[in-house]
Known about the structure:
By secondary structure, the chain is mainly beta. The protein contains 1 helix and 10 strands; from the N terminus they run ββαββββββββ.
Amino acid sequence: MSELPNSSREEGDAIPTEAEVEACFSVLLEGREHMDRRKLRDEKGLYLWEIIIPTVDGSMEYAYMRKGRYVGMSAAETAIQIYYFDADGMPTGGDTAAKFIDSQWRYL
Length: 108
């Protein structure tokens, strides 16, 4: 597993910087064409970042979410999930791509 150091700590939980999240996406995307879907921030920084990657038969979405509760959503851990969609936009599956553990990204 690869690791990236240098996150900030608040209330006992490490919070990755936006640059650290971007570096993790860079590893996961492996140079593939993509576009940002949305980025959301609060007083602690970035808490949601969704990236869409077009595929031959649909799309993939990488979604970073920081641990916590937000309006209409929550996450038990800081991680990047990957979701797969068919050509009609229907979800076909998903998995965890990376988790932020002990101030470092762990690629799964």
